[in-house]
Give the backbone structure.
Amino acid sequence: MFKSILKVYLLTCFLISCFDLEAQDIFTYKGSFSLGDEVGEAEYSFFVRDSINVFDGPFFYSSEYFDEAGRFVQRRISGIYENGKKHGNWIYKNNFYDITVETVTDNFKAETTINGLSTSLRAVYESGKAIGNWVFEEKEVVNGKTGKNAKSLEVFFSEGMKAGPFRFSMDGSEGQTLVRGNFSADSFFDGEWSMEYSIDAVKYFETRMYDNGFLTNLRLENRNESVAVFDVEYESVIEKLAALQREDSDLDFKMGDRSFGLVFDDGFPSISEEEASQFLGNKVLGEALNVLKSREIGGLELEGIDLIDFGATRRFEYTFTKAEEAALSEAADLIDQSISDIQKFINNSSLSLNRQKNDSLAFSFKLYENSLAKFELLSQEVERLKGDEFKYQSRDFYYQDGIQGINRVDTITYTFDGESRYRIVDNGASLVNGEGIVFNMLAYAQQKAEYISRFDSFLRNSLLEIEREIASQQLEEDILSYLDSLEARFDVGRGFDVMDSDGIPLSNFLLGLYYNFNKKLDISRQAYSNAEGFRARQEIGLDMIGLIQAYLKAYEPIGMVRKRMEILDEAFTRYDYNPYMDRHDIKTRTKRNIYLAAMEYLLPDYRNRIIEVEDYRELLPLIAEMNDAFDRLVEIASMPDAETRTMERRLRRESNPDRIRRVLDL
């Protein structure tokens, strides 16, 4: 017994606790309320969450005012909110009246005439989304009395989307318009749709068959004359739907999931029966569905519902078969490669400047320019095909007239010798229609690439010849430039012992070097003149530049030999004391044998070998060796006599330059 009481007590505590957690303070508001730009009166319940008022419970709104057109407007909205979302039945009423004052009685009461429209919408929501049957009515008000229904609409919703029956009627100047049909669960036209309407006093009756957004049949009758204006069966659509239902393999289309407007299109030509037959009925459907706008019905702004999609047809989404994908990929690669190959030629400045060298080259260059334009145009179309432009648009229809600028035959116009010339080029393939556009593009690209490839060898050889001529011309300009530099450097016309701007005098050594250079230059010139072929002339020309550069570099160290001789003389001179003058001014030669061996045999040997060198490549190493000898001799001159006594003894009467070098350790 006690345990049972305890369980009841604990359960009660738990429920009370849960209630405390969930319970919220509900407030009621009554007063001014803004609905968009309109201000009226409202009464509603709400609670506060995160400092925001959340509608919860009954809601009522009303307003009355004169609009800019002078009409008297009454608006009434009532329904229920649950946790901030519309739920259950809602009623929207809008009245628009033109009020005319006829008279005012003695007791100040106005007698008026009221004409206008009274609109109402009965809507159903579930958690803020439209569901169930919505009914809209628009009635005329004439002399203060409700007249005929001017317009009515019934539409069924499922989770905010049109799904189920649709009914529309309207009384107009030409009679009544009736529309009946159904929407699929995906909110597309589905099943049979029928329309009765009059245009220019002609009564029409139209029936359409839709398959979840795809129009398959349309019949339009002229009731006045009892004849069928159109009786169209959309065979291509029926066949595609059947192929999808059979799950045929490797199709170039699939079921699209996007919604479109009223016009159903499967790549129909603009003047086709398939498109023309829809024209009148789509105007009527547009008028009917115009009542049903995005978040608005009959001029009533509906807050708190999902966007109502106006589109009601769908299309096939175009894809590629495996063969088309392979062909498109191959075409893209071939086109890119062709563009790259062509650009290597026409972007070459040497070829461009010399393209008028002969008739064949002038034509070939223009052919390649023309072909580049064609391949670039094809490249743009390949990118278009690979993009989303044809996702819901027929490629065959778009390319029904081919690609402008891509023809089977091209006329290549060029000029040579001042006259205009032309040649006809047969590309072997064309894109005159859209059927099989991918394969046609590939075939054209293949034929075009194969044709221009015949000129590749000619252009390469022409370019090679031009570049060789340019290279030879540049080489000769370089040779002359280096020769000018050498002549200016040696400047043998300035006179013997006259110094240049760097303080180097013109010496016999420099003159001998210069004369020997000219002998070698004449031999090179002769060889260059007699050389046959580009490579042979290039080799001799480059060797000539090497010769000139070597003698240019030899100028300064040879010009400094006289100065180095003076330094060497000073290094091997000692100044002894002169008792008569009381100063050290008596010159005495030190290490005489070493000095004489160097001055009389070693250095003259270097001079002769440098002047008479056979191979100019040996010139600079030989000069470097001579400078090393100068440095070594200066070093020996500064050494103590005890360390050089053996050298002195061995070099007495020694005249052989090679043995002198060995003794001096060079």
The radius of gyration is 53 Å. The chain has 17 helices and 24 strands. The CA atoms of residues 343 and 508 lie 59 Å apart. Confidence is low (pLDDT under 50) at residues 1-22.
